[in-house]
Structures are given as C-alpha cells and as structure tokens.
Design a protein that fits this description.
- It is built from 13 helices and 19 strands.
- The model has no long low-confidence stretch (mean pLDDT about 100).
- The strands form 4 sheets. The chain has a 9-stranded parallel sheet. The protein has a 4-stranded antiparallel sheet with strand order 16-15-18-19, with no helix packed on it.
- Helix 1 runs parallel beside helix 3 and helix 1 crosses helix 13.
- It is globular and about 80 Å long.
- The protein folds into 2 domains: about 350 residues, Glycosidases (TIM Barrel, Alpha-Beta Barrel); about 70 residues, Immunoglobulin-like (Sandwich).
- The two termini are about 35 Å apart.
- The protein is of the alpha/beta class and about 450 residues long.
- Helix content is about 30%, strand content about 20%.
- Helix 1 links the parallel strand 1 and strand 2.
Length: about 450
C-alpha cells in the first residue's frame, strides 16, 4: 500500500482555491493524479465529506463550499466520479474519505446551506468552541452519517471507504484557558442508560465503527474499510510513549476496532520521527502491529507535511524514506499512507516524490490482498497479439479489478497496473515476453498468462 491523502477541507490540497472554474479544477486534479502515478503511489484517499457537506452530488447534504466558495452551489460536474475515473485510468485505487461527525466552523454558521444538518436538524448539532459538531450520542446522527456512507458506497465505483481521527472533537479551551466540555448533557440524559459518560461516549464511537464496517460490506462485500486514528492509543502504550490520550479525550478506542476486526486496514497517524524520544516511530509501529491479533492490515500514516517545513520539529528529506525502509523490515510492514498530497508531490520542488520514485517506489506495487474478504483468486486471462498490442480476454467467473502486467525488453523487466476494464497492452518492438495476471477487488492475484515473441 502506497497511499496518498488528498485533503479538500479548507482547500488544503485540492482545489487550490474556491474561484477556479470546473475545467481548472479538473486540470488540477489530473495534475495531482498524474504526479502521484508517476511517483509510484497506488492509492488515492480522496476527502469527499469534510464537514456535513459533499464533494459530489448528494440528496442528503449540500455541495461543499470549498468547490465554489458557496455551500450548496453546484460546481457543474461530479468531482468524485471524475477522480475515480482518472485514478483508475492511472492504475490507482480510489478510497472515499469521510468525516463522520464534523459539521463545520462556528464562524461559518450564517453561511451554511439550507440542506446542511445544522439547518435541517438543529437539535442534532452542537456548538463546541470554534466548531460545530454532530453529536455522536444521537442515534439520528449515526443514522444520517451511515445513510451518507451507504449512498457513496452504492453509487460510486470506489475501492475503499475511509474515516479519519475526528470522532468526538479534540478538546478546546475558552479565553480564560479552561477546558470547554462537550455539550451533550441532554443527549446523555436521554441515551446514557446508566453508563459512565466516558464509557458511553466510547461506546457511541464503537457502535459507529462496527456499523460502518458491517453496513459498507453489506453493500459491497469486497470493499476495503479503513480508519486512520490518532497514532497513540493511550500514553504508556508502549512504555515511554507520551502524548494525547485519544481514548479519554476523543473517545477513540482504536485498538479495540483493530482487535474486533472492524477494519480492513488501520492507518494510525504515526506523525513522529524515528528518533523522537517520547513518540518513537518504530516503537509505536511495532506496538500497533502487536495489537493486530486478527491479521488485518496496519499501514501507518507518515507525516510528509513535516519534511523541511521550517518548524523546530521538521523532518529531513530522508526521514520518510527511512521510515518506509524501517516499516518494510517488519514481516507485516506491507504499506503506509502519506499526508498530505501537496507536501508529498510539490513542496521543496517535489523532492520527496522524486526521492521515492527513484528508489523505494521504483517498481510498481499492487495493494496487498485482504483474504478475509475473499480468498479466491480470479482465473488467468488469455492473450492474443493484434498489431502492436496484446488483447486480454478475461477468464470466466470473477471479474478482474486490475491487471498486473510485466514486460521484458533487452533482458529487463518493467511492471505496471491497468484497470480491469482495459483490454489492450501496447508492446514495443523490443518486448519479447509479457506476463499478465488478474487481481480481484480484494487484491487476490490469479495465475499468470504468458506471451512470448515467436
């Protein structure tokens, strides 16, 4: 797994500003995807629901203001459908990234569209410091967010659904420095059922994560469900680790989700250096892998945004490659995700992308299989030469989601990935041998079909 988070909230990665035309937005997205594919990225994690809004046409929530500057205004095309099409055309998976409960900023409430939950169900949305938040303790909130997920999963040809670390809000303080309590007294009184409030809040988040996993798979059984929680489960785990306690502060029992098998991949945000004394990258990585009792994927999130970013804790250019190498020394170290797109592909003159493309990402990679979703590989295709291209005829049975293609010319092999609806492989005059394998949506790789030049 070589994932890349494309953040749309506040125009972090795309689109770069709210005044772009639809054509310019598409051009920017094509540029991102082309650069990502050239780097060797194989998965785009595209933020489609930043805060109770939509980067796609939705009957449930308004168009996101990041597209046009006005929430609810149609940008004139479907960015999610376009992103899927263009990612697949470049041999990359597309995972739709949603924020389950974030609703926006307090300062923007006067500008929210009439279809935003703050307007349609004001009783479900809480003002918390500088933010507005859908109350996770309200059953109607969980139902609404799951309807949004089900709509995306059923309407779009995505490869995964992804949620990040925002469950209950990170704690805020008032002007006097006092912690602001999350205003869910009335919700707790109605639904707490005698539980201690902290346990009840964690149970609300647990219920949503379990439901997300179960209901997304009920629609598409081989879809990947991924969560990227805060990188520390609890301080002291492993010994010596210090930092925010996500278990008590944002009510995220992320170790439980992994151990219950409520994810296909967990991407803990390990945004610290290898040498960090209180948040050691290898110590945290190994701890998370030890918690993975069900053999799901643990693909850490890496802080590309810290590379030469001018802060006291900036990473050197070699920190991310060193973290990838270290991860690959672990038997279960089968991938990682990079945050974010702009810093990975463009900052510092694109130095990180160039470093990865020339070394660690030089050879193409398929996303590892998730055999608990489906363990049966597709059949081998048949290959026939037609002009200067090989025509691929799929085997009967399970369709190919991807084609893994390897070609040999002058004794050197090159590899690339094609989306399953592509049926032709161009071969140059110097190519004397080609191998093609089908991979299904769960990542199982079938037997190779071979062509040799007579």
């Amino acid at each position: 797994m070589r994932g890349l988070w494309v953040a749309t909230v506040a125009n972090i990665d795309w689109p770069t500003r709210t005044t772009l035309t639809a054509d310019l937005q598409r051009a920017e997205l094509v540029d991102i995807l082309t650069r990502a594919a050239a780097t060797g990225i194989n998965t785009i994690v595209f933020q489609v629901r930043p805060a109770g809004d939509a980067v796609y046409p939705s009957s449930l929530e308004p168009w996101a203001s990041l597209l046009t500057g006005t929430q609810g205004r149609d940008p004139g095309y479907d960015p999610l459908a376009f992103a899927i099409q263009e990612a697949h055309a470049r041999g990359m998976e597309l995972h739709a990234w949603v924020n389950p409960f974030r609703a926006g900023n307090t300062a923007d409430t006067a500008k929210l569209a009439s279809s935003h939950l703050f307007r349609t169900r004001r009783d479900l949305v809480r003002v918390y410091g500088t933010q507005i938040w859908m109350d996770p303790g309200e059953p109607d909130v969980q139902d609404h967010s799951m309807r949004v997920v089900a709509d995306i999963v059923s309407r779009y040809d995505i490869d995964g659904i992804h949620a990040d670390d925002y469950f209950y809000p990170y704690l805020q303080r008032d002007a006097a420095g006092r912690l602001i309590p999350f205003p869910d007294d009335a919700t707790y009184a109605r639904h707490g059922a005698g539980m201690a409030r902290d346990n009840w809040r964690r149970a609300n988040v647990d219920r949503f994560i379990e439901r997300l996993y179960r209901e997304a798979h009920a629609i598409k059984p081989t879809l990947k469900v991924g969560i990227s929680p805060f990188g520390i489960w609890r301080p002291g785990n492993p010994p010596g680790v210090q930092g925010l306690d996500a278990y008590t502060e944002i009510y995220a029992d992320s170790r439980k989700w992994l151990q219950q098998g409520w994810v296909d991949y967990l991407a803990p945000q390990l945004y610290w250096a290898i040498s960090a004394p209180q948040q050691s990258y290898p110590a945290l990585l190994d701890w998370w892998m030890e918690q993975n009792t069900r053999g799901r994927h643990v693909w850490p999130g890496l802080a590309a945004y810290r590379v030469n970013n001018g802060t006291a804790s900036a990473f050197s250019l070699q920190e991310i490659p060193d973290q990838i190498r270290l991860t690959r020394t672990r038997p279960a170290g089968t991938g990682h995700l990079l945050y974010n797109t702009t810093w990975t592909l463009k900052q510092n003159g694109g130095a990180l992308a160039a470093t990865l493309a020339g070394d660690l990402y030089r050879d193409a990679a398929l996303v590892p299989a998730s055999p608990w979703l489906d363990a049966t590989p597709p059949g081998a295709p048949s290959l026939t030469l037609s002009g200067s291209a090989l025509q691929i005829t799929p085997a009967s049975g399970e369709p190919a989601r991807w084609w893994a293609v390897r070609q040999r010319a002058s004794g050197t092999w090159t590899a690339h990935v094609l989306f399953g609806d592509q049926r032709a492989v161009a071969i140059g005059a110097g190519v004397d041998r080609v191998l093609v394998q089908a991979a299904d949506q769960a990542g199982n790789l079938g037997a190779a079909a071979e062509w040799r030049r007579p």
